[in-house]
Structures are given as structure tokens and as C-alpha cells.
Amino acid sequence: MPPKKSKSVIKAKADDFVEEKPAKQQKLVLATPTRSTKIKLELGDGKFNSEFIHISSWNINGLRASTKHESTTKYLGSGKFDIICLNELKVDEDTFLKENLGLKFSKDYFQYMNCCSTKAGYSGVGILSKVKPISIKYDLGIDKHDGEGRAVTAEYEKFYLVASYVPNAGQKLERLEYRTKEWDIDFRGYLNDLRKRKPTILCGDLNVAHEEIDIANPKTNTKTAGFTPQEREQFSAYLASGWIDTFRHLKPKEVKYSYFSARFNSRQNNKGWRLDYFVINQESIAAVDNSDINTEIEGSDHVPIELTLNLHKL
Question: How many whole angstroms separate alpha carbon 162 and alpha carbon 181?
Fold first, then answer.
């Protein structure tokens, strides 16, 4: 979300992915860079039994706060989605375990949570999946980017799914150089390496409103994190390297936002930003049956985004 008010490409190696025999009972998977080898992962064959699967991605702006809302618990517990990706957990691993926060999710899902290990109550991403993935990877495997809980990669039979909460450039743009000249370049290299193996889907709060149609007030936000020329240019570079913004591809003229500031009645007045995306490698775009933004759900300053995927077309 927006703040409140040159490095070479490094690619992840195939053996960076964790592949272990499935545990018999343990469903909860938590990992940080220093503890990942001590956690038993619930892994499987990554196979779905249906032609179509439904994936949701949502920046919940704090797991504990968001799940106090009835709208949130109903949405997460609806059972509609085969996979739910969560951004901005804002809880460290010890607190997650101590408070049994995994119990807030349906027992239908296996849980893969990458909590921030560098700062309490900050960042963090997770994947809830009805199917056990073949492998799970936390972070990118690049020291300068790891530790904040910015990414989880799940490998399924036919595709990779990367849930990511992209670093914010900061209220004073203090992280703009890092974001655009380091993270964006290395992350793009990481994604491009994945797509060489199988179709790849990126989802999450990518902290950029790409075009003027994606923000309610473009002229007054050109120096605001999430809409600077540098961030927008980097997202254009993603797309130019062979990735497709699924929502804009299917709905080129639709005005719809996924983030609304808590101030100025932004949501009621529909004055928002489209910061959350499902992005897929261009060779697999035919498999996207639908990509939308669900503005009916409350419980966060973001709303969920939803993708329907035809596995037979991957």
C-alpha cells in the first residue's frame, strides 16, 4: 500500500526449492531464512482434480486486526477458493504460534506462512492451499531481499504460484532506489527463471499503480510512492519481458481499484489505487478464464483480487 502521510540480475537455482517427504499430521508451515531447515513441510503432488481452480490474493493489512471483521472471516472461510494468498500479515512467527493464529483459517487449507524476521508487526506473506504443493520456497534466496517476508513460491503440478508483497518506496521515497534498481530487477530475474520451467503466476500487492486509469488522482500523485515514474517504468519492464497484467488484459477500460486510503471516505467515494495484481507469463494467458477485483469485501484497506484458471489450457 502507499505510505501513510545498478545491480545485476541474480537467479534462483532449482535446488533452492525445498522438497521433502510429506509429514503425516503437520499442516502448519512456518519458515524464516534461519529456521527453514527445522520446519517439516506438508508437501504432496501438487495436483488439482478439477479443470478450473479459483485463486484469491488479498492484502489483509494485519492478520489479527483483519480477522476481527465478520466480512473477513466469512470470505476466508467460504471454501470457494482453492488457493488464498495473503499479504501484509504484520505478525512475527513466534506470535503466530503463541496466539494460534493459524486457527483463524479453515481446516481445509494447508498453511505456508513467511513472516518477517527483521521487524515485529511488519510485512509477511502466506499461502493457504487445499492441495499440497510439490515444493515451497520462502523469499528469493538473495540476502539483501530476504528476511522481510516478501515472497512465498509454491510449485504445483502445472504451474508456479508466487505470492508477493513488494517493498514500498516509502513516504519520503527513501527506498525508491532500492525498490526500482535492486528489488525490481532481481525479482524480475527470479520470475523469468521460474517461467523457463513451467507456467508462472505472480500475485499480490505489487505497490504500483501502473497507468493513470489505475489511480483516481494521477496528477497529484506523481511523487507519491506507488505512482512515481520510476516504479511505473519498472512495471512496464516486467510486462515488456513477457508478462501480462491479467485484469487489464481482460478489461482494458474498466476503472476498478484494490486499495483505498482510510482517510477522506476514499472507499465510499471510489477514490483508490489498483495496486494488487495477478500477472502471468504471456505464453499461458489463454488459461486465464477471469481476473477481477472484489470490492464487496471489507476488513482491510485493500480488497481481494480473484483469478479463475483453466488448468487444461496450461
Answer: 21
Which of 75, 165, 257, 259 is labelled catalytic? Answer: 165
Residue positions counted in the chain: 314
Structural contact between residues 210 and 251, judged by C-beta atoms closer than 8 angstroms: no
User: Cell numbers of 150, please?
Assistant: 516478501
Which of 30-34, 188-192, 285-289, 306-310 is least confident?
A: 30-34
Q: Which residues contact 168 (CB under 8 A, 6 or more apart)?
A: 1, 2, 3, 175, 179, 207, 225, 226
Of 186, 205, 214, 301, the catalytic one is 205
- Single pTM value for the model: 0.89
302 exposed, middle or buried (CB, 10 Å; 0-12, 13-18, 19+)?
Answer: buried
Q: What is the DSSP string of 16-75?
A: GSB--PPPSS--EEE--TTTGGGSPP-------SSSEEEEEEEE-S-HHHHTTSHHHHHH
CA dist 131 and 71 (Å) reads 25
Tell me the chain's radius of gyration from C-alpha atoms.
18
Beta bridge partners of 200: 160
Angle at 221 between CA 162 and CA 217, to 5 degrees: 95
Give the pLDDT confidence of 251-289 residue by residue, as tens digits: 999 999 999 998 889 999 999 999 999 999 999 999 999
Q: In the structure, how many helices (H) and strands (E) does the chain have?
A: 7, 13
SS3 at position 309: strand
Q: Is 165 a catalytic residue?
A: yes
pLDDT in tens, 189-217: 999 999 999 999 999 999 999 999 999 99
